[in-house]
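Summary of Year 1 activities. Much of the first year was spent building the evaluation harness for sequence design. The harness presents a backbone, in tokenized form, and records the residue chosen at every position. We chose the following record to illustrate the format because it has been used consistently in internal testing since the harness was completed.
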């Protein structure tokens, strides 16, 4: 059993159509599945990028808040009351300026003793600041720094400080302090997917503020398994054991020691792709069933049509003239019409065969007549049998080239440039000595033979006696349209011009070649031929109607 038989066993057209529907639907389904997998992977990559971008956006929001606090401290540091240690006036002016805000200002000396605190009325006894290490770090670095979150002794709330070192009277540092819950208003999850959370983490790894589904209270240590991995300026953290089916994006707040993080389940962020998966599965099964049912219905219709066509073919084979049948399949109707017309087409085909045979006989006669005339002319001028044989062989070779060219073009004519190239190939030395110019066009079949014969004679004469007989000789062949008085139709002029060859003299007698290039060419193309035997080289000019050469 052959491979084709095993792959395509005998079965009804219905079976093959159903199989075709399945074979088309299944690869499409598989291809769409592959595209969805690629889409899911691309969406996962996009989700990673957007998660990191969300963390960066949150970090910029927190950075603006910290920068605002730092700006407030810079403005307050220029107050003359601090230089003059007029803390009462400074306290009153600062409290008035910050009224309605959630910020408080503290002035401390180098020991950390609070000199004033806008959380308390001026004159209320104050202790040392609750976060002396943060104060000392800022004084040591000489920069404005944000502290870790800590429990405030006065407010009793989780707070954080922004400390600016200062050398103004007794004041060693100005501190802007804010409750962590007030900062939490900036930590929003409105732009995040459902179930996602966000947080701000201080340098010590504690939560400053958080919001969302898994929000953490201020001061809560963030997962210590995750923190060591958050080393880049921003990025994404994934770990199937620590955060199963979840994604975490983080960003370092530029110029500060804090970080922002956003995290949540991947499924909620990719809910659309999951919906698409369900739609694909259900829709794919439904479409497959519809395709199978449709293929079965079409198979029944096609089977009936094929049987009707087969019956027509059977009756036609028995010699009957059948009428075309009308079916619901357009192609089947075309086949039926073709079968009905087959008997009439048979007679037309026979007529065409007779015509082709007649044309073949006609062309063969013309070729034989031309060959006979050529041999008679050559025989009159041949000096020897060998010379006669060579001359006949050369001319027949040129004729064969024309016939081969016409045969390759189905005897419909040929490009003028190809006619020139084909016949000059017989003279290899002419390749670098010949210049050809003129607009190409398609030549009539009968003109191909006559023009080829003329070109062959011109080239043969030049190789024997003219410019092509010496290495430095040159020949130019050109053609183009010209205007001739008293001529209503378009005229064409061919010029074969030789130069740099041996000195030319008018021949004392006319041979076969002269007859071809003058008399035969003029008669064949209904034109005029002029041959000038100039000392510097022969010039052959043919002027003829373009219609005598160009195929319509």
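For this record, the design step produced the sequence shown next.
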């Amino acid at each position: 059993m052959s491979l084709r038989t095993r792959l395509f066993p005998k079965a009804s057209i219905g079976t093959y159509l159903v199989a075709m529907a399945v074979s088309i639907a299944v690869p499409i389904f598989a291809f769409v599945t592959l595209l969805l997998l690629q889409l899911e992977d691309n969406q996962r990559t996009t989700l990673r990028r957007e998660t990191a971008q969300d963390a960066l956006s949150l970090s910029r929001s927190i950075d603006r808040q910290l920068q605002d606090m730092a700006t407030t401290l810079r403005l307050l540091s220029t107050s003359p009351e601090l230089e003059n240690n007029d803390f009462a006036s400074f306290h009153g002016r600062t409290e008035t300026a910050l009224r309605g805000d959630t910020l408080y200002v503290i002035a401390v000396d180098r020991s950390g003793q609070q000199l004033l605190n806008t959380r308390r009325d001026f004159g209320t006894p104050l202790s040392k600041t609750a976060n002396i290490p943060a104060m000392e770090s800022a004084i040591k670095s000489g920069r404005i720094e944000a502290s870790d979150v800590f429990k405030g002794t006065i407010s009793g709330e989780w707070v954080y400080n922004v400390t600016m070192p200062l050398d103004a009277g007794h004041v060693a540092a100005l501190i802007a302090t804010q409750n962590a819950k007030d900062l939490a208003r900036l930590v929003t999850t409105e732009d995040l997917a459902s179930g996602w959370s966000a947080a701000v983490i201080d340098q010590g790894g504690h939560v400053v503020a958080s919001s969302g589904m898994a929000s953490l209270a201020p001061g809560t240590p963030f997962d210590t398994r995750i923190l060591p991995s958050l080393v880049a300026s921003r990025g994404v953290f994934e770990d199937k054991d620590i955060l199963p089916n979840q994604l975490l994006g983080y960003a370092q707040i530029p110029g500060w020691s804090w970080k922002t993080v956003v995290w949540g389940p991947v499924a909620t962020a990719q809910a659309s792709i999951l919906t698409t998966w369900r739609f694909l599965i259900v829709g794919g099964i439904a479409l497959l069933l519809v395709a199978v049912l449709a293929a079965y219905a079409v198979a029944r219709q096609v089977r009936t049509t094929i049987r009707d066509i087969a019956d027509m073919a059977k009756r036609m084979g028995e010699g009957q003239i059948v009428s075309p049948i009308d079916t619901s399949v357009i192609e089947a109707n075309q086949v039926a019409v073709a079968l009905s017309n087959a008997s009439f087409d048979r007679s037309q085909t026979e007529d065409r065969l007779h015509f082709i045979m007649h044309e073949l006989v006609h062309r063969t006669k013309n070729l034989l007549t031309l060959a006979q005339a050529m041999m008679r002319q050559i025989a009159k001028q041949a000096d020897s049998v060998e010379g006669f044989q060579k001359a006949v062989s050369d001319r027949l070779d040129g004729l064969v080239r024309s016939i081969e060219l016409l045969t390759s073009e189905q005897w419909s004519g040929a490009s003028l440039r190809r006619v020139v190239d084909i016949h000059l190939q017989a003279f290899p030395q002419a390749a670098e000595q010949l210049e050809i110019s003129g607009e190409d066009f398609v030549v009539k079949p009968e003109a191909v033979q006559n023009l080829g014969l003329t070109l062959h004679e011109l080239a043969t004469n030049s190789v024997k006696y003219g410019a092509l007989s010496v290495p430095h000789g040159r020949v130019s062949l050109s053609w183009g349209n010209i205007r001739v008085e008293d001529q209503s139709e378009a005229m064409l002029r061919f010029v074969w011009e030789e130069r740099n060859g041996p000195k030319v003299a008018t021949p004392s007698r006319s041979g076969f070649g002269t007859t071809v290039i003058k008399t035969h060419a003029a008669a064949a193309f209904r034109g005029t031929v002029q041959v000038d035997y100039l000392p510097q080289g022969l010039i052959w000019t043919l002027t003829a109607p373009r219609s005598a050469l160009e195929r319509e």
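Residues 284 and 441 are 59 Å apart (CA to CA). Quantitative recovery figures across the full test set are reported in Table 2.
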